[in-house]
Amino acid sequence: MTGNTEEVKQVKGSMPKAIKMAKEMDDDFGQGLAGFYKAIWKDREDGLSMKNKHLMVFAIACSKNNTNSAKKILVKLKKHGATRAEVLDAMMMAAWTGGIQNFTDISTDVLPEMDKLGY
To answer: DSSP assignment, residue 49?
Structure first.
């Protein structure tokens, strides 16, 4: 994998499965998808910090009841210095946008994972 796909590893920290699969289908499709990832995750002057970007995607994952994604993002949030209070705030925002039932469902898995990661 070259070009955009390699740069995604540097920007995001890992190679997303979607890019690997797109690349297998068609090189141009893989490169295009990698460009999309790069645009979202690169640092921009006066833009959101990596921690804030991950807090946002964490809240979205929680609001969509996507437990697997939320747990993976917790690891990234820990790496970027998010506090327990910040993560809990994001979960509460998810309850606001996704509904209390999603919050109930996801908090059952996410709260123990937070403890496990040392939040």
So the answer is: -
Convert the pLDDT of each residue in 20-46 to its tens digit. 899 899 999 999 999 998 888 888 899
Please give the Cα distance from 118 to 14 (Å, whole number): 22
Distance CA 6, CA 89 (A): 34
Question: 50: burial class by Cβ within 10 Å (0-12, 13-18, 19+)?
Answer: buried
Rounded to two decimals, the pTM is 0.82
Residues 110 and 62 in one domain: yes
Query: Which among 59, 67, 69 has a CA at the least distance from the CA of 93?
Result: 59
Q: Is 109 found in the same domain as 85?
A: yes
Closest C-alpha among 60, 46, 55, 65 to residue 104: 65
Q: Using DSSP, state whether 32 is helix, strand or coil.
A: helix
